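Q: Sequence in, structure out?
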Amino acid sequence: MLAAMGVTVSGAAFGKLEAADKDTSGPGRRALPKFSDSSKSPLCLADFEPLAKERLSRFAYEYISSGAADELTIRWNREAFDEIRLRQKVLVDVEKIDTRVTLFGQEMPHPILLAPTARHRLSHPEGEVATARGAGAAGATFVIASLTTRRLQDIAPVAKAPLWFQLYDLRKERRDFVRGVVKEAEQSGCRAFVVTVDAPVDGARNRIQRVADELPPDMETPYYQKATLAPGEVLPIMGAMGSFTWEAVQWLLSETRLPVVLKGIMNPDDADRAVRIGAAGIIVSNHGGRCLDTLPASINALEPVAKKVAGRVPVLMDGGVRRGTDVLKALALGAKAVLIGRPYLYGLAINGAEGVARVVNILREEFQMAMALTGRPNIRSIDRSVLWT
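A: Exactly. Output:
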């Protein structure tokens, strides 16, 4: 019955996907069949990347897909999930599967969020506006990146699901500007701030360096960086965001009453300190393998961090999530929710808002199936006993 339901839901989605954003043309973008063409319809998250690669300029594809140095961490993010086995529990009533989760007082229909990723206009002409529409259609919280190519005043009106906002650079010389961004985000209805803490400088992004001369001339400097550039200054495609310390996090906590979540923590001691100074949550993340190569997989770092935090604040994770079983494994190891990045950008490139929604819905459907097949009818029933040890 569950398998049939999954096919029915997917089939219904195909019909809706024909109503994708009309403006899908643009520099370096080739027309592809809509998802309603079943021969081209993505059935899992891995299906999106090759279709997006056909659609994106070479620069855009390398910018989204690449990682640091030899890209070992990117590979380990996937391999680590693959090495975790599941344990079934049979003859459990799983007729109704409840994926609802509450984070920072916000009830969400499922524990899948859209991670902050830069420059969405590389993927689609409407950029983050289309992403927000797709996130709302799928009930996914969207974390808007500091390197957004659309302003909050454009994104917020179309959002039907919660918005969070990422802050990347809290150096003292930028704080007057950051204070203004904080107020704008609050007034736009954002419900949390995510501070990325693991990228004071860039990693060795060799694949980007090899195509840097193909940077599209019309690619906008992200708005919330443009405002701080000196006259004539250009933001480099890979520019260090600037080093800041724990003092900067404490400053931000004094500027807002919204939850402040620290993203990019892999060290349990850092997680403990974050909780002690007042962070509302932790995101275990190796930056998708884009900064420091040979960091361990995020899923391998998750459990030690979760044990150190010991339930004092929610722990989330990102990095390598591509299957519903991955979501289940992350929750079993202590995460309250997961974030995805590259997959929804590929969906955005293929079919705008509808592509974003399709990515999330596939992952959610797979997660529901995994819960049912392991005898876990709700989020509360997911714990380490679902793992084969």
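The two ends are 30 Å apart (CA to CA).
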